[in-house]
């Protein structure tokens, strides 16, 4: 027969490690008290585990006149605490020990100087019972002592009386906030000897109702009289059972870890941010990284492209391509005139080494110093207008809003801040991307060199024809005998070379210009795509990556919180 085993939850060690990891990830993002509280719990848990785990520290806590000290004496079997009726008599906590050997370091950590050996009771061996000051004392030092020890003891025994069991101070300040600690709490209704039998049952029923409202259903509630001894055996048996299991200390630490994790999960932002939504629990948030930001990402890229003057750069690429094509492939007789016209890309300080200088060099000429100088610093692309800057800011904000949708307030604020964290760097980074990417638009096609060679060959033929004709005219002018003149049909070769060179050079220049116009359009389209991709990478690096990193941090935080508050 197959035996089904109960699946065990994470160990106390792993939950402690997860709590510390969540506190580390939440630092600077969620409120400092929540982070500090989680670290304090982890530190307290580490210390408690190193001390005696064979002893269980139980504390009697109650209001003035609840009979807490009387109950303490009755359980200890001797008068150890002074008993008062209407005023507080316990100023500092004291301890009664059953088989207290080895409990010294534990009591030192709890800072309990007054220690007593209780009457022998094998059933309570290992119990350390504390009598605390009154939690409603008029003295602040008493209340602070109670608050300190309530956070440290293994088992809490709340002592109430028929007159003040519904006291709001007890329920609102202690019981309700400690609802997650019901496994390590007991409520004792003391002084029941003052009530008729039927009134005791009514008080117990009403007390259980109040505890249910506090989030403590099922918590043990005992009717006790320290004066008559009623219910003391049941209380001793319950304490003996808790002590014998030696698990109250770990149950208390587990409850503290869960409470600290819950506090982290519901904590607000570390610093209030205007416009942020109110904090929500982590359970209501998104699962973390991997959000689809497609629409917001495209809008961001579009806004950055508009602000970077991409349309103007693309137009300049097309015009610059045609300008350099004319310089490189135009008719040598007239191409030099083009050098006096500014290169559109050069005017925008784009393309690195001056495109005009490169074109002149490729044509076999010598570029001047201004044309051959490396361009440094920002480009001269027209600055973004106020409207374009506002569009970029809106797009960045929209990325943060889309990424933060559905997240708790603290982490939504962190994601929005991450989206804006590197926004001041966008202008320079986009400008560099434009300057670098637009260099693609200055590359010379290979056919320019071939056409340039043909043009110079045709130009050389034209010069040869012109010189030939000049020599003939000179000889005729000097009445020298004419040399034989070859012809093409009836046209002399010198004329063919001169006229043919002119016509061929002009025709080649016109065809090259048409090809450059078509090539400029293609190059402009390619440059536009390259610019959009390059600027998109800038937006991804400076806006999207910080957001994704924050989403990943939140996912790890949520995982750590879930592990920390998981019950074994």
TrEMBL record:
It comes from the Bacteria. SUPFAM superfamilies: P-loop containing nucleoside triphosphate hydrolases. The keyword Signal does not apply. Pfam families: MMR_HSR1. Residues 58-190 form the G domain. The chain crosses the membrane at residues 453-475, 495-516. Residues 267-293 are annotated as: Disordered. Keywords: Membrane, Transmembrane, Transmembrane helix. PANTHER family: GTPASE ERA (PTHR42698), GTPASE ERA, MITOCHONDRIAL (PTHR42698:SF1). This is ABC transporter.
